[in-house]
Structures are given as structure tokens and as C-alpha cells.
What we know:
By secondary structure, the chain is an alpha/beta fold. The chain is about 35% helix and about 20% strand. The protein has a single domain, classed as Protocatechuate 4,5-dioxygenase, Chain B.
Amino acid sequence: MAKLLGGIATSHIPAIGVAMDQGLEDTPYWKTFFEAYPPVRQWLYSKEPDIVIIFYNDHGLEFFHDRKPTFAIGAAAHYENADEGWGIAEIPPVTGETELSWHIVNHLIEHDFDITVCQEMKVDHGLTVPLTLMWPGHNYGHVKVIPVAINCERHPIPKPSRSYAFGKAIGDAVRSFQGDQKVVVMGTGGLSHQLDGQRAGFINKPFDLYCMEKIVDEPELLTQYSNYELVEKAGAQGVELNMWLAMRGALGQSVTALHSSYHLPISNTGAGVMLLEDNG
Ligand code: DHB
Ligand code: FE
């Protein structure tokens, strides 16, 4: 059976990718933020996963407000990035994976998650920035990636409890896959931030730290929030916590937090990174 090794949660702020492309990691603004990542990379490189499943939200590149799947999964041989409004980033395509993708698709439909299956799909910063954080220099081509997009922009968006259950169904699918692949799940986005409106710039550090504490052993506590409550507590884009919950849902009951770091602000966001090893 395929083995789920663990999960990584990280913010996916576009400015991170720009800072890496421009070699700004050691400058005063960025140094502390980037110092949190080498331990995560070390774990990842020592585990050598074959496949990374990435829960992210598409901010309008592939799915704009006019057509917005609640849950979408990629089943393509590769995925391209494209211009998100600040020029086309010249980055290599992301390598896809189709066998496990289709297995997950079948498992999800069997378990009442009626997802959108994408045999072609552009991937935005929600996916490419975390990949580049894990493999600097965009050196992620050797890893097979399954993109899983959760709607976080076009309300109504799935409830935190539903995102968590969705992640759990994907974890079950991986664990039932006939193969010896090593799999890591990632949840990208968050933590608290609001990019526009009257509360633009809103960050809630105590709430972010509470989420990072509870997601380890008591994730169900976080799934009790409504998205409305998340917007209140974490800002309009704080609902990206849903991706962290899907990642946590995919893992087993018992995990060990091997690494955890929080830094603010990066751009408009309380930036968090966590590495959870699956004890199952
Ligand atoms: C920022 C954060 C995000 O999650 C995002 O998708 C875009 C921008 C920011 O803080 O700049
Ligand atoms: Fe975002």
C-alpha cells in the first residue's frame, strides 16, 4: 500500500516566490521567515516522497468567480503556471501523476465527494510558491504532484468540517492504493489575512497560534468554526485555513509536530509553517 509519511502546512504569499527569485532570503525583511524552512526541507529530502498532494486554493487563474468548483482535482501529466496579473513567471511546469489521481477520484465519488476532475489545469501561486519553498530554484520537477483545489473565494465555500472530511477521504484513498509510493500532503494558504475592504491588513496572531497548536492533536476543535466565524477571526482570506484542515484530515489520528514556526507580517499575512509526521 502507498504510505502517507506526513503533512506540511505553509502560507503561499506570492511575494515569497518573488523574494526567492530575486535572492532576497538573507535580507532583514525576509531572513527570519526563510530560516523556518531548512528543517522542513531536510525532512522532505530524507524521506524522498514520490508524490506530493497539494491542497490549495485557486485565486482566479484557472477558476474565476464565473465557474468555481467546490473541490477540484488534477489528473494530468503536467501543470503550467500562467500570468496572474504581474507578468508571466517563467517557471518550469509541475510534473503530474495520473494513477493515484484517478484512484483518488474513484474513491472520492464512492464516498460521496462529487469533485471536478481536471485533465488540464493551470496552477497558481497557491501551489507553485509552496513547491518552490520546498525545492528552491524551482527544482521540483522530479516530484509528482497532485493538485487539489478547494474553493476559498466564491461564497458559499465548503465548511471547515467538510474540508477536513474531504482531506480524510483523500488520506483513506492514498492508504488503500496498491503501490509502494511514498506520499506527502501539503496544505497551503493562511494564516490570518485580509487583502481588501475595510479591514485590509487585519492579522490575528493569537488566533493563528491557537490554530497551529490545536491542529496537531485536536483538529476537530477547529472544524467547528463556520467560514463566517473564520472571516471574523482571521480576515476574509483567513478562510484559507480550510487547506490546512484538509491536509490534517488526510493524516492519521496521531501525528508529531516536528517543526513549527510563525512570523508576521509577510506582505499582509501572518505566515505559518508546520511539519507534521504521521505516526500511523
Ligand atoms: C497574500 C496572501 C495570500 O494568501 C495570497 O493568496 C495573496 C497575497 C499577501 O499577503 O500578500
Ligand atoms: Fe492566498
